[in-house]
Design goal:
about 250 residues, alpha/beta, Spore Coat Polysaccharide Biosynthesis Protein SpsA, Chain A, seven-stranded mixed sheet, two-stranded parallel ribbon, about 40% helix
């Protein structure tokens, strides 16, 4: 079933910030995906102003050196995860764009399972987002982060029209046209960028489907449950105010 759609180019966009300790996880996940994915794909790694030696390690990694034809590494001044994703998505050439995290908490080959569930290609007008709250997901994560995540997503449902249980999972598949539109409009570059993207997609009448996935927490998370949780709530309020103001002008 997946072979029927193999000719379509897929773009993987991966934001990275101080990921030197996880670089082997990153390239191991890409290597496994290359062995199993039946179609053409490209990988866009965006180094978001890392202060460690991630860029040097990445450029000298065996997987990159043997796959320069499909892997591109871009470096930029630090903007935040949303900004790194934005720049990567706008460079992508694929018909569909998969965003995912460098720690491979959900590896790209999870997409193969999604294709099997669909029985073929994804729809052109739908965003598929991994949900750690889906009843069929297999999750291993810290309970404190689960509580914080549930509170955050409750705030999203209260303040926006998004009726979702998990907006923040980094594993998302976009049709390229819609991805470039909403990422091009993105103004939130911090951790709450997902909310703005999905909010904009919702207002554009794009269907959003939460999908089950296997997700493994990786040590060394850069999210502070209290500090970043409060920042994300402030960002949600800013997003809502901004988008409502934009719509009022139209």
């Amino acid at each position: 079933m997946i072979n029927a759609v193999a000719p379509a180019l897929l773009s993987l966009v991966i934001p990275c910030y101080n990921e030197s300790d996880r670089i082997d996880l990153l390239f191991a996940g890409l290597s496994s995906f290359k062995q199993k994915w039946p179609g053409p794909f490209e990988v866009i790694i965006v180094n978001d102003g890392s202060k460690d030696n991630f860029e040097q390690l990445a450029l000298n990694h065996e997987f990159y050196l043997h796959n320069k034809d499909i892997v591109s590494i871009y470096s930029q001044a630090n903007t935040g995860k949303g900004g790194a994703l934005r720049n990567g998505v706008l460079k992508a050439k694929g018909k569909f764009i998969l965003t995912l995290d460098a720690d491979m908490s959900t590896p790209p080959e999870e997409l193969i399972r999604w294709y099997a569930m669909w029985g073929g290609a994804p729809a052109d007008n739908t965003i598929y987002t991994g949900s750690r709250e889906h009843k069929d997901s297999v999750i291993k994560k810290n309970n404190n982060r689960k509580v914080a995540g549930n509170i955050f997503n409750l705030m999203v449902r209260v303040l926006t029209p998004l009726n979702m249980r998990d907006t923040q999972c980094g594993f998302k598949l976009y049709p390229a046209g819609e991805a470039k539109k909403i990422f091009g409009e993105l103004q939130t570059f911090g951790w709450a960028h997902d909310v703005e993207l999905l909010y904009r997609a919702h207002l554009d009448n794009v269907k959003i489907v939460e999908m089950p996935l296997v997700w493994n927490a990786v040590e060394g998370s850069k999210i502070s449950v209290l500090g970043d949780g409060m920042k994300m709530i402030v960002e949600i309020l800013t997003i809502v105010k901004r988008i409502r103001a934009e719509r009022a002008k139209k």
